[in-house]
Design a protein that fits this description.
Number of strands: 18
Helix content: 40-55%
Distance between the termini: 63 Å
Low-confidence stretches: 8-19
Strand order of the largest sheet: 12-13-14-11-10-15-16
Structural class: alpha/beta
Bound molecules: nicotinamide-adenine-dinucleotide
Oligomer: single chain
Strand content: 15-25%
Number of helices: 18
Length: 533
């Protein structure tokens, strides 16, 4: 039987590695299965590390999704009525449980993705960071807000943030622990229920975390998980949801947007990128080298904020690029349930094919390979070497398409203006990184068309600034996660205006013309009033 990534046990040969551990426990498998909506069919899921069976899980169809929403809606009534303090208590317990049970979470992430342990830990850390942030800040972001009323003193106007109801969440495979959970936490803190459809290749990390969320006190039924076909379940989710949180490719994001528009429901979409890094000639060399490597090869490049285009100023090119090649060639590629490798395997045969296609197309059309470039089945079925290329031109797939793998194209630039123009010459606008002296790099940063720009950092500084919005310009997304924006989107914004003493109309006995004249005088005077809420 083949699973969602087209794998069967015979599709791969188990690696002779002493570092791989025995399959997950029977108890954990049962707990996972108990958290998935019970569909009529089941599906076996295999690990990309060695083709071994991880577990079998129930599969849902569209009618199951309808029932999952009913159940979540039922549980949401009581949850939406709790105070922020009561919801915060659940989230803070969840925060502690995530850190306490991190070994199971890290193992699970590695089993189903093949990523390195360090990249898996990024997910655990992100959940802790985001959960603490929203547990502490939700009340401040969502408490009723005083706004300027129609008439001074006699109109009291407040804005209320009401929970949407049940949020539909659709998530990809690359960060299977943090993307579902870190976007769910603000939705839950705002008083919503959730129906989640994780990518069918990677359901287990979200289930392990959900198990902890229920242990922390989340009411039964509030957070439903359905697993199955993307288009079928995705459509059913959009047809039922009060709001859709989608993370995935730009192509699928456009389908989601069309479907949400037909129902006139809100949605937020975190989509693809082809992210640039600019190294100016006054960049701190050692830190820039380290930053370029982390930003390009974390999670084997399967990261939406990952750097795929590197623009290096000619004044530093000859010092920077040879050192980068040297450092990249030393990166350890491997699979182990410890921290001995910096770069892990790719997720699937499909992902490997895409990465190989980009590299071989570029080489056939005249690009130069500086380091890497090879599939490494001796390491893991879908392992691919960290790769640097130069001479990438417009006619190559690699030039504009998101590779989503450990492959970076390097370009020499001769001015800040050229670097900015090239960095912006893309349909995407998710993340960017600029290295150089502070003032110069910051001045370049604000000219980059991207939702987040990291100065003297690759992506972590902006991503981990949880109080600040994160999202895409252009075809990289709609809406934002993190910060005030990342929780208010899960609410309907309601204005309640209370009028005291007099109506906003002509007083009794005053004709329309006299009222108009009085209003005109009043409007002229109001110009001198300061803005005050
Ligand atoms: P994808 O679009 O193929 O799939 C994402 C999710 O959408 C999966 O759960 C899938 O089953 C579901 N889906 C598929 N067809 C659907 C449909 N018709 N309607 C609704 N849902 C459907 O993306 P992927 O290949 O799994 O993920 C990689 C992409 O995600 C990359 O482009 C990456 O840049 C992007 N990504 C973006 C962010 C971000 O924060 N901007 C984060 C992670 C990944």
């Amino acid at each position: 039987m083949r699973d969602h990534r087209g794998m069967s046990p015979s599709a791969t040969k188990p690696q002779k590695s002493s570092t791989l551990q025995p399959p997950v426990s029977k108890e954990l498998r049962q707990r996972w299965a108990g958290l998935v909506f019970p569909g009529a069919k089941t599906q076996e899921h295999f690990s990309p590390l060695d083709g071994s069976l991880i577990a079998s899980l129930p599969q849902s169809d569209a009618s199951d999704v309808d029932v999952a929403f009913e159940k979540a809606r039922g549980a949401q009534q009581a949850w939406g009525g709790l105070s922020f303090g009561q919801r915060k208590a659940v989230m803070m317990r969840f925060h502690d449980l995530v850190l306490e049970h991190q070994t199971t979470l890290l193992d699970t992430v590695q089993w189903e993705t093949g990523k390195s342990r360090a990249s898996a830990f990024d997910e655990v850390a992100d959940i802790a960071l985001t959960t603490r942030y929203y547990a502490n800040s939700a009340e401040q972001h969502l408490r009723p807000e005083k706004r300027q009323g129609a008439l001074p003193f006699v109109t009291q106007t407040r804005v209320h943030f009401q929970a949407k109801g049940v949020v539909g969440m659709i998530t990809p495979w690359n960060y299977p622990l943090t993307l579902p959970l870190s976007d769910a936490v603000p939705a839950l803190m705002a008083g919503n229920g959730i129906v989640l459809k994780p990518d069918a290749q990677t359901p287990f990390s979200a289930l392990s975390a959900l198990d902890l969320l229920y242990q922390a006190g989340l009411p039964e039924g509030l957070f439903q998980v359905v697993i199955g076909d993307g288009p079928e379940l995705g459509t059913a989710i959009i047809n039922n949801a009060n709001f859709v949180m989608f993370t995935g490719s730009t192509d699928t994001g456009k389908i989601v947007a069309e479907q949400a528009a037909r129902r006139l429901i809100g949605f937020s979409a975190e989509l693809g990128g082809k992210n640039p890094m600019i190294v100016l000639d006054d960049a701190p060399l050692e830190r820039a080298l380290e930053g370029a490597i982390t930003a390009s090869f974390s999670n084997a490049g399967q990261l939406c904020m990952s750097i795929e285009r590197l623009y290096v100023h000619e004044g530093i090119y000859d010092r920077f690029v040879p050192r980068l090649i040297d450092e990249v060639s030393k990166l350890r590629l491997g699979t182990a349930f410890d921290f001995s490798y910096e770069v892990g395997a790719l997720i699937s045969a499909e992902q490997l094919e895409k990465v190989q296609a980009h590299v071989s197309d570029a080489l056939e059309r005249g690009a130069t390979l500086l380091v890497g470039g090879k599939h490494r089945p001796d390491v893991a079925p879908f392992a691919f070497e960290p790769t640097l290329l130069t001479g990438v031109t417009e006619d190559m797939l690699l030039c504009r398409g998101e590779t989503f793998g450990p492959v970076v194209a390097i370009y020499k630039v001769s001015s800040d203006e050229e670097a900015i123009a090239l960095a912006n010459d893309t349909s995407y606008g998710l993340n960017a990184s600029v290295w150089g002296s502070k003032t110069r790099a910051e001045s370049v940063a604000v000219q980059i068309q991207a939702g987040s720009v990291n100065v003297n950092e690759g992506f972590t500084a902006s991503w981990a600034s949880t109080d600040a919005p994160m999202g895409g310009f252009k075809e990289s997304g709609v809406g934002r996660r993190h910060g005030r924006e990342g929780i208010q989107k899960y609410t309907d914004v309601q204005t309640v205006a209370t009028q005291s003493g007099m109506n906003v109309a002509a007083p009794k006995g005053m004709g329309a013309e006299a009222f108009t004249q009085a209003m005109t005088k009043g409007l002229r005077l109001m110009k001198y009033l300061p803005f005050r809420k």
